[in-house]
Amino acid sequence: MELREYYHIIRRRWWLPVALVVIVALAWLVTQKPWQPRPPVYATSLSFSVGIRPEQAGDGEENYYVALTSEYLIDDLAEVVRGSEFAAAVSERLAAQGIAVPAGAIQGSTQTGKLHRILTVSVTWGNAAELAAIAEAVTATLQEESVRFMPRLFAQNGAAYLIHRGGIGLVGTGLRERLDLPLRLALAVVAGVALCFLWNYLDSSLRDRADLEEMGLAVLGEIPRER
After folding, report:
1. Mean pLDDT across 124-135
2. DSSP state string for 135-174
3. Residue 53 sits in which domain range?
4. Whole-prediction pTM
């Protein structure tokens, strides 16, 4: 099939991709309501140095095992901070200050990362003042109550120190959100073009002399279409 035939197939049913694009755009407008102001979202980041304090200065081999144990410790601690029990402890600490924040909301807004013996905790929230209180509660819980979640390791001279407290900043629109509508419209165009070709494949109508010649019929004359 030549490119010219592809063009004629799409041109014959051009309204299919156009209709899909319009439907997708209207559905996106109804669900996303871009004319309404978005609630602000704030974020902050905390960095902790996590490790095992050696009981006394040792040789190189002892220091190696201390460092290795510290790396295992931070792997486990990262999972603890993402867990529901840690979030519940933070929620309890906030409740004692008169700030009601559900544990599930804290867990869903907290992300962790790790590099060697550095643990990073990132928190996003819709209120800057509450976010500052949540960050303080996370820091206090991690430094004072880690032994509650990991008694075997933290009871053996484990420690977590806050080494960096990031500021609270307003989160801008992400790349995924900016590309959401263009990607949806592009997929609608592709789906519409695919429907054009599917309809053409299933359509048994005779439209021009080429269709008759494919059936083995001789064409004696043809009335040109009016321009």
Report:
1. 92
2. HHHHHHHHHHSHHHH-HHHHTTTEEEEEEEEPPPEE----
3. 42-170
4. 0.66
